[in-house]
């Protein structure tokens, strides 16, 4: 027996983006149906941001124990209980899950339908036994791991981000295919937890990042024993006594690397097929749904947000998309999706954070830019904590307007916040010099780099003349 629902808004997908739209709309008194085929919270909560950061947190503790002797603290070898680490990761998920639960959303007045959604025509969605004819639809169906066609891969039990957090035992040797954020974060986490780790990429590593900053991170990974194989195409994978063996060419040599586990982290593709988008007249490619600046699809009743759109894939971007849909669908406002700078952070050690343009991107747009740098080695807090690798780099226009900021180093993701505000508010780098920041904090690196803007002034004759005159006047 089919039930027919006619809400104002139907959200497809209960992950980061979909839940933000549903919660905001319901709290504004709009009738909302939310369709989710799997776990509430989507990728970020269950298989993505949360478990990966929880695993990294445990891994960084293990690393701190390993390096404690540099502080004069003698600790015996870190004893890692891998089952307890697994439980810590799943406790973090469980502690956050109530925020995303069916109970919470039902309490907000959202009707949650647990089924896979599929369009029947331009106005109608089918979700299990329910038909939804909504005034507006929002597609927030996220993505799934892309698995490349490598001979032998389908004959071995490989891991993806959807299964790696289920491991509760020691990983002997993790082979990672893909040197993107997933490969680096999870590769480093496992290395710190005692695994041998090898990371393969068909291209160079971290090509989107500032090359100087990328070098700091790559050096750290190499020093911690992670084997790096950039520009290497794995040609064949087969089972071995240890688990698996990957075959590739190095020059004219055939090389084999053997491992116990394989993680496939070679990018993601949007979940579009089951939606039958063609039946609803929604234009798309296999990389994402085509949308306007206000995230409207080619069907005027339907919006698409988050990973389903393709391009950059971040929880904060999906949330930002949600705010745009709410403004446009409910208040008829026309916010522009490109109005805000979208930051990104890799939560490795050291963290690598970026907002706005990289130096390379800025140079390709204009030759009239300025670059300012400050190293963590010249930050007192970093010296106390012995976390001196890395730097901040700020790119500005000639007049000091901030175009972009790269930070590689301790707490880079936290340090970036000030610069996100500065760019969003179109501030100039000099504006930051008048702030009083607590000493000794890593944040002082931001003020120090801002002072660098005034350094050329110190060579100006007129400035020295004024200082000299004031001195004479007593
Ligand atoms: C390992 C990993 C680590 C990450 N770490 C970070 C991080 O630190 N910071 C960050 O910002 N981003 C991170 N990301 C990216 C982030 O998880 C995604 O960008 C974010 O989850 C996208 O949100 P979304 O709402 O578009 O999709 P999702 O959160 O994936 O939600 C989509 C939901 O739609 C449901 N669905 C799909 N198809 C249908 C259908 N036909 N019918 C009904 N329901 C459907 C799915 O079951 C899912 O629950 C990470 C990703 C991974 C994989
Ligand atoms: N901290 C964060 O914000 C965070 C963390 C994890 C993931 N994410 C997001 O999730 C998405 C997916 O991450 P990802 O790391 O899987 O994807 P990615 O697309 O960023 O990186 C995938 C890498 O795999 C390589 N690759 C492709 N085919 C290959 C093959 N056959 N063999 C070896 N390497 C191959 C690519 O060259 C690329 O470097 C990204 O958009 C990312 O931004 C964000």
UniProtKB/TrEMBL annotation:
<comment type="similarity">
    <text>Belongs to the class-I pyridine nucleotide-disulfide oxidoreductase family.</text>
</comment>
<feature type="domain" description="FAD/NAD(P)-binding">
    <location>
        <begin position="8"/>
        <end position="319"/>
    </location>
</feature>
<feature type="binding site">
    <location>
        <position position="53"/>
    </location>
    <ligand>
        <name>FAD</name>
    </ligand>
</feature>
<dbReference type="InterPro" id="IPR004099">
    <property type="entry name" value="Pyr_nucl-diS_OxRdtase_dimer"/>
</dbReference>
<feature type="domain" description="Pyridine nucleotide-disulphide oxidoreductase dimerisation">
    <location>
        <begin position="342"/>
        <end position="447"/>
    </location>
</feature>
<feature type="binding site">
    <location>
        <begin position="178"/>
        <end position="185"/>
    </location>
    <ligand>
        <name>NAD(+)</name>
    </ligand>
</feature>
<protein>
    <submittedName>
        <fullName>Dihydrolipoamide dehydrogenase</fullName>
    </submittedName>
</protein>
<feature type="binding site">
    <location>
        <position position="267"/>
    </location>
    <ligand>
        <name>NAD(+)</name>
    </ligand>
</feature>
<dbReference type="Pfam" id="PF07992">
    <property type="entry name" value="Pyr_redox_2"/>
</dbReference>
<keyword id="KW-0285">Flavoprotein</keyword>
<dbReference type="InterPro" id="IPR016156">
    <property type="entry name" value="FAD/NAD-linked_Rdtase_dimer_sf"/>
</dbReference>
<feature type="disulfide bond" description="Redox-active">
    <location>
        <begin position="44"/>
        <end position="49"/>
    </location>
</feature>
<dbReference type="InterPro" id="IPR036188">
    <property type="entry name" value="FAD/NAD-bd_sf"/>
</dbReference>
<dbReference type="GO" id="GO:0016668">
    <property type="term" value="F:oxidoreductase activity, acting on a sulfur group of donors, NAD(P) as acceptor"/>
</dbReference>
<keyword id="KW-0676">Redox-active center</keyword>
<dbReference type="InterPro" id="IPR001100">
    <property type="entry name" value="Pyr_nuc-diS_OxRdtase"/>
</dbReference>
<dbReference type="GO" id="GO:0003955">
    <property type="term" value="F:NAD(P)H dehydrogenase (quinone) activity"/>
</dbReference>
<keyword id="KW-1015">Disulfide bond</keyword>
<dbReference type="InterPro" id="IPR023753">
    <property type="entry name" value="FAD/NAD-binding_dom"/>
</dbReference>
<keyword id="KW-0520">NAD</keyword>
<keyword id="KW-0547">Nucleotide-binding</keyword>
<keyword id="KW-0560">Oxidoreductase</keyword>
<dbReference type="Pfam" id="PF02852">
    <property type="entry name" value="Pyr_redox_dim"/>
</dbReference>
<dbReference type="GO" id="GO:0050660">
    <property type="term" value="F:flavin adenine dinucleotide binding"/>
</dbReference>
<keyword id="KW-0274">FAD</keyword>
<feature type="binding site">
    <location>
        <position position="307"/>
    </location>
    <ligand>
        <name>FAD</name>
    </ligand>
</feature>
<dbReference type="InterPro" id="IPR012999">
    <property type="entry name" value="Pyr_OxRdtase_I_AS"/>
</dbReference>
<keyword id="KW-0521">NADP</keyword>
